[in-house]
Amino acid sequence: MYTIDHSLTIMSTKARVFSAIVSHSILLTLLSSFVTGENQDFVRSLDRKLYGLKKEKLTHFRVYWHDIYSAPNPTAMPIVRAPSNTSATLFGSISMIDDPLTEKPELSSKLIGRAQGFYGSAGQEETALLMAMNFVFLQGKYNGSTISILGRNHVFSKVREMPVIGGSGLFRFARGYAQASTHSFDLKSGDAVVEYNVYVLHY
């Protein structure tokens, strides 16, 4: 009786080991297929030349960004007030913008495009903004094309750098950076004019 029970135990153990080996083999096969790209009908490699993507070029834009709170028709609008009245940095406040981008510092100069998006105060101990905006161009061959900027703006630094993370139209697959420097700022109204130098790699 002991011999029979012992044999059954050995057979049961072997069956479990065999089952585990088969399961691991199936799992490894599936992982191998995933890594090597087999059975992935949802993705494929493309020839960039078929989409007109040839040699990258570097383009530089200089525009003036007008953030206006005080006008009868402001281009910057607070949408979330700072939760605390004691915050020196207005931490937590958010503003939506549709700011003109002009060729020169004067608002009356040629309109190049608009900066549309929002920014919020993301620093508790220093004035640092999270900027998320699209530069929408309205002139020349770039009319209708956009570049997207997302980054940290330490507003009291002389020059602030933020990444260009993409674009549309002539700026598809764009990447680069934007440098912002304050041209003028009205402490009473909050109105500001900022010079933006944008360097973009694109096709």
TrEMBL record:
Signal peptide: none annotated. Its main location: secreted. It is found in: Secreted, Extracellular space, Apoplast. Dirigent proteins impart stereoselectivity on the phenoxy radical-coupling reaction, yielding optically active lignans from two molecules of coniferyl alcohol in the biosynthesis of lignans, flavonolignans, and alkaloids and thus plays a central role in plant secondary metabolism. One of its GO terms (cellular component) is apoplast. Belongs to the plant dirigent protein family. This is Dirigent protein. InterPro entries: Allene_oxi_cyc_Dirigent, Dirigent. Homodimer. Keywords: Apoplast, Secreted. It holds the Pfam family Dirigent. Transmembrane segments: none annotated. GO terms for biological process: phenylpropanoid biosynthetic process.
